[in-house]
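Archive entry. Fields below.
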Amino acid sequence: MATARPPTAPAAAGAPTRRRTPRIAGDRRRELIALAAGRLFAADGYAGTRMEDIAAAAEVTKPMVYRHFASKKELYLALLARHEDDLPTFLADVDSAHASADTLVRQILERWLDYVRANGHAWAMLFRDHSGDDEIQAFRRRVSLTARDVLAAFIAERAGAQMPSEQVEPTAELLTSGLAGLALWWIDRPEVPRSVVVEAAARMVAPAVR
Amino acid sequence: MATARPPTAPAAAGAPTRRRTPRIAGDRRRELIALAAGRLFAADGYAGTRMEDIAAAAEVTKPMVYRHFASKKELYLALLARHEDDLPTFLADVDSAHASADTLVRQILERWLDYVRANGHAWAMLFRDHSGDDEIQAFRRRVSLTARDVLAAFIAERAGAQMPSEQVEPTAELLTSGLAGLALWWIDRPEVPRSVVVEAAARMVAPAVR
DNA sequence: TCTCGTCGTTACCAGCCGGTAACGTAGCAC
DNA sequence: GTGCTACGTTACCGGCTGGTAACGACGAGA
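PREDICTED_STRUCTURE:
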């Protein structure tokens, strides 16, 4: 137990123990850390990801991560918060007036899939990961519940009297779960063209909105 | 650091430190522990459940759990293994010959939902939990992949030339994810009658098998 | 060239939790 | 009664990991 090493000469002579990471501006480093964290959280979930690994993936050491983010939880929530309000937008500004139900659904699905492709990490953090303490689970739950409710409202509006009211919620749940799972499936298969996914999804969604 | 306490007289006098659990046969105790573990694993997932909590829920202490199960992982996998082969059975022995597609689908859904009601813990362990090391994740993945493939084969057979082959797999993925999520939703809402869930599910499944 | 703020490092602590050693004791077989 | 076996307990260890203290050094501005 060496209590205090002689302050000068960190390594013996000429052999640097660890390659020092080049010094860059704080903001930029913060983004690199956030990027690495997103990748790891998406792959291994909150509980399965260690701060040490995030630091290594960002090519720095742990205290650097803690300089930019107060805790593991804050880092995770900061990443999720960037996408908190994205989901409802797919159904929001859509011209449901003059367009056939079929083309309308396809347009929405295409926009949504483009988003998933561009933000796969956030999607996986939201819908693949289930770990974390109560606060984290509550956050994810809030986001996905909002998505489900927006979809439920959309269904109720489009389907009208065709669907008994007590079936709106289970149908919305079925669709959000199914679409979330389909998106995760697609994220793992970059070779599958978007049109195939749109087609498969449209076939299932159609009976709920018409 | 008391190295060795005097062997006799564990508590001072007359005040039992912990109410000793009544002694019962090993097999029966093992089942009680498995039952408690199933409840906790279903609610909090693998990583979120502590062996100490399982022991407490079974009204024993930790070493008793370890007498019946070698490790946390073995306990978890033992619970899952009981249901490993259940999923394909819903589509297996069904008389697809003389029955309309609609009644056939409804029969399958009803049998499946009855199973979910009776085995909610296993269902949640399979489809809500995502934590655990590689071996555990591989086990769950194998089970749900099997389910998806069986469903895909069913779709391919029923839909026939109606559906392009490259859409069979994403459709199966969409349905398994959707149905799994719907089941979890229903588990949390015992007041919802089975018929409502069957109706909502049938509406979505129909276009894939006809 | 000197100084100071920020970027980066090493080495460490503390708490949680899976797992175990060692020890009691209830009750069935005889 | 008296063992003997299996059921049950207390008390502990060790590793993993989130988080921190203390220190070093690069580089922009004076």
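CURATOR_NOTE: Residues 4-5, 7-8, 10, 20, 23, 50-52, 62-63, 66, 71-72 of chain B lie near DNA strand C (CB under 10 Å from a C1').
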